[in-house]
Amino acid sequence: MPIFTANTSLLYTEVDFLERFELASKDGFDWVEFQYPYSYPSEQIVESLNLAGTKLSLMNSFPGNDALGERGIAIFPQRRSEFLDQLEISLDYLLAFDCPRIHVMAGIAPQDHDYEELMNCYLDNIIAAAELFRPHNIDVLIEPINTQDMPGYFINYQDEAITVIEQLNLHNVRLQMDFYHLQMMEGNITQKLVKYFEHIGHIQIAGVPGRHEPSIGEINYPFLFHLLDEMDYTGHVGCEYHPKAGTSSGLSWLRDFQ
User: Fold this and answer.
1) Exactly one of 22, 33, 143, 166 is catalytic; which is it?
2) Which of 71, 180, 220, 250 is the most core-located residue (most Cβ within 10 A)?
3) Whole-model pTM over 0.85
4) Considering 43, 70, 186, 240, which one is annotated as catalytic?
5) What is the pLDDT along the chain (258 residues), one digit of tens a residue?
6) Domains of the chain
7) Distance between CA 250 and CA 247 in Å, rounded?
C-alpha cells in the first residue's frame, strides 16, 4: 500500500497545531504534511515533529494575505520581489524540517486579467523556485485546484499543470495530483493517473462530494491504491480531507490498508 501522510492542517484540528503530530503518530502515521507553517517558529515545529517521531513530506509556499483570501502570489508581476523574498523564508523552513517538496501556490487571478502576462510571471517564478531548491534536492510542485472550492485559482486542470511542467522541463518541477480536485473538475482519475504518472511528485486524497474521508463518496479508492501499487508508486499519498466526525474515529478506512 502507498505511504499515507496525515495533513495536519485539516486533520486533528480538535487540538492545537503543534499537538497534532503526536496524535497522527498514535494513529499510525510516520509522515505528516501541512499547508502553512509560517505562524510558528520552525524550531517549535521541529521539536514537535521529533517528539512525535514523525517526518514532514510536504508544505506550501506563502499564500500571501490569507485574511484577504489570497492563495499564492506567484502569478503577480508587481509582487515578484515579495515572492522571491518569501521563497527564501520557505527554504529556511524546508531545510529545518528536512522536507523534500513544496507546493508553490499560484494565486487567484483577477477578473480582468491578462492571462499571458500572469502566465509569463508564473513561469519565471517557478523557474526561480526550482533553481533555489534544486541544490537541496527539493521538488517544486504544481497542483490544479477545483473552481468550486477555490474560485479563480489560476491552475485548475491537470493538462494546464502538465503544459507548464513539460515546457520548463526541469527535473524538480513536478505534479501534485489531488484526486479530490481532479474528480471535481474532470473525473477520469485512472486515465489521468496513468497518462501523467511520470510527472507526479505527490498525491492527495479525499472523498467526493464533501471532501470527507476517502471511504465516503463516489471515488473507488481501494481500486486506485491497488493501481498505485501495480505502477510501483513510491511517493506519498496525503490525506487532506475534513473528517466528518473526529479524525481518529474516522480512520477505519486507513486501518484496512495498513
Assistant:
1) 143
2) 180
3) yes
4) 240
5) 899 999 999 999 999 999 999 999 999 999 999 999 999 999 999 999 999 999 999 999 999 998 888 999 999 999 999 999 999 999 999 999 999 999 999 999 998 889 999 999 999 999 999 999 999 999 999 999 999 999 999 999 999 999 999 999 999 999 999 999 999 999 999 999 999 999 999 999 999 999 999 999 999 999 999 999 999 999 999 999 999 989 999 999 998 776
6) 3-255 (3.20.20.150)
7) 5
Question: Whose CA is closest to 19, among 58, 11, 249, 92?
Answer: 11
Distance CA 186, CA 102 (A): 24
Region of 106 (left: φ > 0; alpha: ψ -120 to 50; beta: rest) is: alpha
Q: Quick check: is 240 catalytic?
A: yes
**Any idea how long the chain is?**
258
Beta bridge partners of 237: 4, 203
Phi-psi region of 107 (alpha: psi -120 to 50; beta: other; left: phi over 0): left
Under DSSP, the state recorded for 249 is G
- Cα gap 171→1, rounded to integer Å: 26
**DSSP 8-state secondary structure symbol assigned to residue 57:** E
Distance CA(43)–CA(96), nearest Å, equals: 8
Name residues whose C-beta falls within 8 Å of residue 94's C-beta, 6 or more positions apart in sequence: 59, 102, 133, 136, 138
Strands 139-142 and 173-178: parallel
State the helix-helix crossing angle for 80-97 and 42-52, rounded to 10 degrees.
Answer: 30
How is residue 76 written as a grid cell?
Answer: 503577480
